[in-house]
Design brief:
Elements: E1 2-6, E2 22-27, H1 30-39, E3 44-47, H2 50-57, E4 63-66, H3 75-82, H4 94-105, E5 111-117, E6 128-130, E7 133-137, H5 156-163, H6 176-181, H7 186-204
Parallel strand pairs: 1-2, 1-4, 2-3, 4-5
Antiparallel strand pairs: 5-7, 6-7
Length: 205
């Protein structure tokens, strides 16, 4: 399949996808994109705005994965505001723009999955709840025991253990804990792709 992997980060969701697909990954941070490319040299890596890239290229792919930034939607943000640790902000509506775009304009035969954490508010568009995640997709995602990623404090040592990647090896100077926290459970990423593949096979046969 031709796969579009948006907001790719260092490739947690992609780690177990193998090399049988033609994968294009989009990541805004050039340094993070460099790390992704190092681990997945066969993928085409685009340094740029994933939200805009989706709008311009959604019709070119067989499977689209999008995992937009979640902090403005998370319950951790809400609790932080009440504790005086965070400033209240408007939820980033890019998430819902992508869901609506893909739901109504995806190319016939294209499968898509938009992922985010369960929000602190009632869902504006219904999705499939799996563990601490919400998935908006045009195929059914079976329950998966490994859905709940580790939550709580993410130390650098925990992040290295979780991902197998030491960001210090790349002289990365950004928020390492944030990168590690955003690294999706790779088994869950494979489960989603397998669900999409099964959907395609069921339609073909």
């Amino acid at each position: 399949m031709k796969i579009l992997n948006l907001y790719a980060c260092i490739g947690g969701n992609r780690k177990l996808w193998g090399d049988d697909h033609e994968i294009t990954a989009v990541e805004l941070d050039p340094k993070i994109a460099e790390i992704y490319q190092d681990y997945f040299p066969n993928d085409t890596v685009i340094v740029g705005d994933a939200h805009q890239y989706l709008l311009d290229h959604f019709h070119e792919f067989d499977f689209i994965w999008s995992s937009p930034p979640c902090p403005t939607h998370s319950d951790a943000r809400r609790m932080g505001v009440h504790r005086g640790q965070n400033k209240a902000v408007y939820p980033d509506m890019d998430l819902y723009q992508e869901i609506i775009l893909l739901k109504h304009f995806h190319k016939k035969g294209t499968l898509y999955c938009v992922e985010n954490v369960k929000p602190y508010y009632d869902l504006l568009i219904p999705g499939q709840v799996r563990g601490r995640h919400i998935f908006w997709s045009n195929f059914y995602i079976h329950e998966f025991k490994g859905c709940s990623d580790q939550v709580g404090e993410m130390t650098i040592s925990k992040g290295i253990e979780k991902t197998g990647i030491d960001l210090d090896d790349y002289n990365y100077t950004g928020r390492k804990d944030k990168v590690y926290r955003n690294h999706m459970n790779s088994r869950l990423g494979k489960h989603i792709l397998d669900s999409a593949t099964k959907n395609i096979q069921d339609k073909l046969f």
